[in-house]
Design goal:
By secondary structure, the chain is an alpha/beta fold. The chain is built from 12 helices and 10 strands. Strands 9-8-7-6-4-5-3-2-1-10 form a 10-stranded mixed β-sheet, sandwiched between helices.
C-alpha cells in the first residue's frame, strides 16, 4: 500500500504543465527567500530625525539637565555611510566623560538607544548610538547578525579614540547588538565593560532550534539539513558565513567585564543561550534572569544593575547623581552600590514615564490606538501648545515615542 493516495491523474497540455511547474518553483523560491530574509534582510526600521531624542533641533532635558544630540556620518570599511548620534551634556565639564556605545537589534535602529538614555546620561556619561550598515538610515543592503557589524563597531570606537572624545568606552547591546558586543570585545580588551541583553550563543544552533522546536516544528535532522542548505544560499547571496557568527567560541578568550541579561520567558532566543555564554566566559561576569520575553520592557532592577555595573567599570563614583532613597537597588553580585551612589530617575515626570513603560496602555499605543501625547496624559488628549521652552524637547515625550514603541518592535 502506498504511503499516500494519489489523485486521479489527468492529461495536461504542455502549457498547463509548464504553468504548474513555474508556480511550484515560484512558491519554493518565495519561501526560501523569506527564510533568507529573516537572517540577512529583515524589515528595515524607518524613521526621521524628529523621532530621535531631541527631535530635529537635537536638544532635550533630563533630570533638570540639558543635553544635545550631534548627528554625523562615518564610513565603514565596505564604504557604507553609518548614521550616528552622540548625546552629550550641553554644559560639559572640563574633563572627558565616559561613553557608552549602544548597539541595536537586527530590525532596530539608533532610536532604540532611548532605553539607555535614562540610565547612562544622568551618570555624567555620554551615549553614542548608530545604525548598523543595512539598518535604519545607514547604507548597505544586508544585515549579518554580528559578522560584519563588528567592523562597524570598530569604526565607531576608533572615531571616539581619534577625536579624543571619551575617557573610557563601554558597550550596551540587545539581541544582535549583544552578539556584536561579544564578538568585538574579544578583539578589543580595552573596552571598560559591556552589557549584553538576550544574545544567542551560536547562530546555527539558534536556527536549528527555531526550525525544530519553535515555529516550524521540523524533525531535528531535517532542521539541521535545512540550515546546512540555507547556509550555502546565504553565503552566495550575502557573502555571509553564518557558521562564523559564533560568540560561544570567543568567550574563553574574552576578559572585558560583562553583565548578561535575559528574559525568563524569551521564546525566540531562550535563556540557555546566555547561560552557556556566561558559563564559558573567562572574564568578570554576572548574569541576571528577569521576567519577560525577547521584546518586553525590561524591569526596573535590571536598569538599576546596569547603572551599578557601568558605575563600577567606569570608576565613576564621584560623577553620578543621587538616587531617591525610596527606590530599590538590585544586588548584582560582584557589583554593589549604596543608594546614595547610583543615579537613576527621580523626577515625577520620569517616574510617570517608567510607570507607563509597564502599563497596559503600552500595548494600546503599540497598536496605534493612543497617541504619545495621550500616553503622557494618561489617555487624555494633550494640549497642542508648547511649554515654556520652545528650544528644547522634554525627554519624557521623546521616550514615550521611542523607548516604548521601539522596544516593543519586533527584534532579533
Amino acid at each position: 500500500m502506498p504511503l499516500w493516495k494519489e489523485s486521479p491523474r489527468q492529461e495536461d497540455s504542455p502549457e498547463s504543465s509548464r504553468s504548474t511547474q513555474e508556480a511550484t518553483v515560484g512558491k519554493r523560491t518565495g519561501l526560501w527567500t523569506t527564510l533568507e530574509n529573516c537572517i540577512v534582510r529583515p524589515p528595515r526600521a524607518l524613521y526621521d530625525t524628529n523621532d530621535l531624542l531631541g527631535g530635529k533641533k537635537g536638544r532635550f532635558r533630563l533630570k533638570g539637565q540639558r543635553y544635545t544630540r550631534k548627528d554625523f556620518p562615518l564610513r565603514n570599511k565596505d564604504g557604507h555611510l553609518l548614521q550616528c548620534s552622540h548625546y552629550r551634556p550641553e554644559q560639559e565639564p572640563n574633563e572627558k566623560l565616559p561613553c557608552v556605545v549602544y548597539l541595536h537589534s537586527n530590525s532596530g535602529s539608533r532610536c532604540c538607544a532611548a532605553e539607555a538614555a535614562l540610565v547612562i546620561l544622568p551618570m555624567q556619561c555620554t551615549l553614542l548610538a548608530f545604525d548598523f550598515a543595512g539598518s535604519g538610515m545607514s547604507e548597505g543592503e544586508f544585515v549579518t547578525l554580528g559578522a560584519r557589524e563588528v567592523e562597524d563597531v570598530e569604526v565607531v570606537v576608533q572615531h571616539l579614540r581619534d577625536s579624543d572624545m571619551a575617557k573610557v568606552i563601554g558597550l550596551w547591546g540587545r539581541s544582535m547588538g549583544a552578539v556584536t558586543c561579544m564578538l568585538y570585545a574579544e578583539r578589543d580588551p580595552s573596552i571598560a565593560g559591556m552589557v549584553v541583553d538576550s544574545p544567542f550563543s551560536r547562530l546555527t544552533d539558534l536556527m536549528v532550534e527555531i526550525c525544530s522546536t519553535q515555529q516550524m516544528r521540523l524533525p531535528k535532522f531535517m532542521a539541521k539539513l535545512g540550515v546546512k542548505i540555507l547556509k550555502k544560499s546565504i553565503k552566495k547571496r550575502a557573502k555571509l558565513n553564518i557558521g562564523a557568527v559564533d560568540p560561544l567560541s570567543k568567550v574563553g578568550t574574552s576578559f572585558v567585564p560583562v553583565l548578561f541579561g535575559h528574559g525568563q520567558g524569551d521564546d525566540f532566543i531562550p535563556k540557555h543561550h546566555s547561560e552557556r555564554l556566561y558559563e564559558g566566559y573567562a572574564g568578570d561576569k554576572n548574569l541576571i534572569i528577569f521576567d519577560g520575553g525577547h521584546n518586553s520592557v525590561r524591569p526596573f532592577f535590571f536598569y538599576d544593575s546596569v547603572s551599578i555595573f557601568f558605575m563600577n567599570v567606569f570608576d565613576a563614583r564621584d560623577q553620578v547623581h543621587t538616587l531617591d532613597s525610596s527606590q530599590s537597588l538590585y544586588d548584582s553580585g560582584s557589583w554593589r552600590a549604596d543608594a546614595e551612589q547610583v543615579g537613576l530617575c527621580t523626577s515625577e515626570a520620569e517616574e510617570r514615564l517608567l510607570r507607563l513603560l509597564h502599563s497596559s496602555q503600552v500595548a494600546s499605543y503599540h497598536e496605534g490606538f493612543l497617541s504619545p501625547a495621550e500616553l503622557v496624559n494618561g489617555g487624555a488628549a494633550a494640549d497642542d501648545s508648547e511649554g515654556s521652552s520652545t528650544s528644547d524637547r522634554d525627554l519624557e515625550s521623546e521616550l514615550v515615542q521611542q523607548a516604548i514603541a521601539q522596544s516593543l518592535r519586533e527584534m532579533t
